[in-house]
Amino acid sequence: MHASSLIAFVTYLVIMILIGVIASKQTSQAKATTGSTWMSQYVVGNRDLGWLALGMAMVTTMYSAGTFIGGPALAYSTGYVFAFTAGFQNLAGILPLGIVGIRYAILGRKLNFVSYLDFYKARYDNKLVMWLAGISVIMFLIPLMTAQFAAGAHVIEVFTGIPYQVAIAIMVIIVGFYTIVGGYRAVVLTDIIQGIVMLVGACLLWAALLRTQGILSINLALQQAKPQNLLMSDIPLAIRGIWVFALWAVAAPQTVWKCTTYKSSKDLYRSIMMSAVVVTIFSTTFQLWGVFGSVLLPNLASADKVIPTLILTLLPGALAGIIIVSPVAALMSTVDSALLISSATIIKDLYSLAGGKKMSLRQTRNSTYAISTIIVLFVLWTSIQPPKFLEMFVMYALGGLGAVFFWPFLLGLYWKGATKEAAIASMMTSLVFYVLDDKFFHLFGLHTAITTWIFSAVIMVLVSLFTPKTSPDRIKLCWEPFTTKTASSVSD
């Protein structure tokens, strides 16, 4: 390992820690006199993201270590079919902001949404809906975080030779520290830096490829060694990826949460355009490099290590140290958002639903720190033995979030006819069906996420048509144009 590359890598980790310290001081200086106002500052800040911050926050939240580790590993094994599939993630940079952004932001400001579950409380006003949503958030975000930590440990293991378990501990300490102590502000600041690092890394990788190997020569070698990887042979994988990568983001907690935090509509439109360009670069670069790696590195012991190994093989030490930060940045930007949402869901929503008493400012702050620490330690425990293909773990988590939340969220946001009974039926059956179908059945030969998504839509519409309509007061609350006279809160 080149000393200069190690210096670059360690410097990045130190910067992340410093951001956590700075953000913690800013949070402490914010005016908060009650537990609920502190939680609002900690989770959503001042809702004043500019277009660059919003765009980078959305992009880095969508692109996890699966982009650098799990996705290229599947492309390494299956060929261009997965690279084609992952390309549809371009839509995930546009759909949440375009479909949800404006209406959800207006509603979020009007009712002071802090956690993801605040929407379900405002729209459906039902405890069972809240319980189902809260359980689903925790159930799918934890395996998502597990995959991220495992991927980061693989990167550090390849890069430094540090044992996998020690590398996991490093990731837990760094990400856990800056997220827990810095909250929303730390997540936003690190998202900007991580997005820039990932973009620079992608551009440098293409420069290195074109300098050392031609794409035509790689494809000729691939035709000789693995001709099946040139074909679109695994169509079910392509269909599954298109759904999971493109549509899940419309209703997923970690992307919807960002839709309440931008400063103006102009920032929203600019961030949509920016994310479309950046996401395209990310989607094509790293998945294609997985395919190229099957030629350049044909005998890897683990396909998950294709990108780190290519970086160390093709680039000089100092440059490798900068680029190797990209996958670590990707996993950090996903884990920090998931961790913040999970802790807010438990402390703010599930605790209240369980009959917990209203906490003071100090109790809220200490409880949030404690729960976040417990979540991180639990994820550490589940990461000790990672799955064979991390991307399958990621796709399971993202598919589950989309399958359970897509219709209750989207129809609840735009259709006055959606009822709480329909939301309960859709979420409950989708949650159970998703787990069982994935484990045992795989009906119609489709991926579980797709089957559940269709099943959930049918249930949501049919039950809404045959159950009592939502009260006029509830409809008025969620549809009345935003004015200072109608502003209220669901966060206390």
Helix-strand blueprint:
Layout: H1 3-29, H2 35-44, H3 51-62, H4 70-78, H5 80-86, H6 95-111, H7 117-124, H8 127-160, H9 164-212, H10 215-225, H11 235-247, H12 253-256, H13 265-296, H14 306-314, H15 317-323, H16 325-353, H17 361-383, H18 390-414, H19 420-441, H20 448-465, H21 472-479
Helix pairs in contact: 1-9, 1-15, 2-9, 2-17, 3-9, 3-13, 3-16, 4-5, 4-13, 4-18, 5-11, 5-13, 6-13, 7-8, 8-9, 8-16, 8-17, 8-18, 8-19, 9-13, 9-16, 9-17, 10-13, 11-18, 16-17, 18-19, 18-20, 19-20
Description:
The protein is 76% helix and 0% strand. The chain has 492 residues and is an all-alpha fold. The protein has one domain: Up-down Bundle (Sodium/glucose cotransporter), CATH 1.20.1730. The radius of gyration is 22 Å and the shape is globular.
List keywords for this structure.
76% helix; mainly alpha; Sodium/glucose cotransporter; 492 residues; disordered C terminus
